[in-house]
Amino acid sequence: MTETTHRPAGQQLLGLTVNGERREVLAESRRTLVDVLRHDLGLTGTHVGCEHGICGACTVLVDGAPARACLMFAAQAEGCEIRTVEALGEGPDGRELGDLQQAFTEHHALQCGFCTPGFLMLAEGLLSERPDATKEEIREVVAANLCRCTGYQTIVEAVDACAARRRAATPTPSEEDSCS
Amino acid sequence: MKPAPFTYHRARDIDDATRLLSRLTDDGGDPRVLAGGQSLVAMMNYRLARPGHLIDIGRLTTLRGLRTGEDGALHIGALTTHHAVETAPDAVLAPGFTVLRDAMRWVGHLPIRTRGTVGGSLAHADATAEWCLLAVLLDAVIVAQGPAGVRHIEAGDFFHGHYTTALGPDELLTEVVFPRPAPRAALTEFAPRHGDFATVSAAVDLDVAGDGHTVRGGRVALGGVAATPVRVPAAEAVLARGGTAGPELASAVARAAAGAVDPPADAEYRRGLARTLVERAVRQAVAR
């Protein structure tokens, strides 16, 4: 038997980049990313629901792509850019709602709010990859997460409205050319 | 729940991973390879899996990506994510292999596909997993590397049963090779909720003559009707007899497929699904 066989693993020092900030954490190997975010870094905006990848409440962005933070060990996130719902806030102190959050409010895309951080990060990831996502594509993607309050319709509408607003605010390539 | 304690290792390269696997296996350390973790971590959180050691191969970037060989075969690195295949441009995923890209919408949901890997899915060997079905349908070759060297394993010999494969305990799945284009292939499936594991999945690969509508043969594979994905010779025999691509042929192939399988549970229901899905898959393959 080696010295490590079946011995409870000790803690390891992890360096994570969360919302643009470099953070260091001493955690057990078995600590999932969502638990490190919540318990070690105090970023309780990310929620934890089912812990086996079904509900999506813990969805965060890993290098820009939506991922389940309960299906990743924190150690796997070293070297990645992690973004959580806390990064969506705007204004000087980050306490104002970002445009996606604003759209959720306007469209009543939440009731109890438990699933909302996951939906926000899922939508944020979707719209950064596919800014032109159709309503049908949005509908298919938001099926990844569970919401027991809204019935999804308002979530789809909020994401679609936010996408439309962002498209309207982005100069088309020809306009960009004329500016330069 | 939270996973049981384990020791985490981050492999530096393939040799490092296989050496670690070999040593820890010999020592009775019960090591497991961690790729995207979309099945393994869920099973660990449930404590259905309690490995003593995890060997994280996530940094082995050489295992990531698609490339077409000189012989036209498509090589997919084990760490390539489902999402990378889903979004691969034609320059990387040749038009003859679009069945792989189109099948990705059936793999879990977007946040699963961004992390889950092709190699991880094959090594996990769920009987209804899309990659396992595609590998069996298209005669893929699974490449494994261990202390004894590199092995090439035919998909038909790779899957032994539920979550059981021909991989040795000290072998690392490094690549899957799809040897030839399958321009008239399609995969479809049914699950009570989209994104769940399929109850039954069906895939077909038709051999269509140059006229575009005469079927000369083909392959039919089903998932969810046995402990591994299976080819269905009785349905392939119908295709081998040939005929005009159309609803009648699709229906005859589907009847033959449903009659040939003996699902271990919900037999009538799954046979019914097999019939519907094979028919649908043949129609989709014809329409390509």
Give an account of the 3D structure:
Chain B: It comes from Streptomyces albus. The complex is a heterodimer of chains A (180) and B (288). Chain A is α+β, with helices and mostly antiparallel strands. Chain A has a single domain (11-169), classed as Beta-grasp domain (Ubiquitin-like (UB roll)). Chain A has 6 helices and 5 strands, in the order ββαβββααααα. Chain A has helices at residues 33-40, 99-106, 116-129, 135-142, 153-169, 173-179; strands at residues 11-18, 21-28, 59-62, 65-68, 81-83. Chain A has a 5-stranded mixed beta sheet, with helices on both faces. In chain A, a hairpin with a 2-residue loop joins strand 1 and strand 2. In chain A, helix 4 packs across helix 5. The longest helix of chain A has 17 residues, at 153-169. Chain A is globular, with a radius of gyration of 18 Å. With 288 residues, chain B is α+β, with helices and mostly antiparallel strands. Chain B folds into 3 domains: 7-56, Uridine Diphospho-n-acetylenolpyruvylglucosamine Reductase, domain 2; 65-178, Uridine Diphospho-n-acetylenolpyruvylglucosamine Reductase, domain 3; 185-287, Enolase-like, domain 1 (2-Layer Sandwich). Chain B is built from 11 helices and 15 strands. A 5-stranded antiparallel beta sheet of chain B has the order 4-5-10-6-7. In chain B, helix 9 packs antiparallel against helix 10 and helix 10 (247-260) runs antiparallel to helix 11 (267-287). The longest helix of chain B is centred in the C-terminal third of the chain and has 21 residues, at 267-287. The A-B interface holds A 1-2, 4-9, 12, 28-30, 32, 35, 51-53, 56, 59, 62, 65-68, 70-73, 75-76, 79, 122, 125-126, 140-141, 143-144 and B 1-8, 10, 23-24, 27-30, 34, 37-38, 41-42, 44-46, 52-54, 56, 58-59, 83, 105, 109-112, 114-115, 193-195.
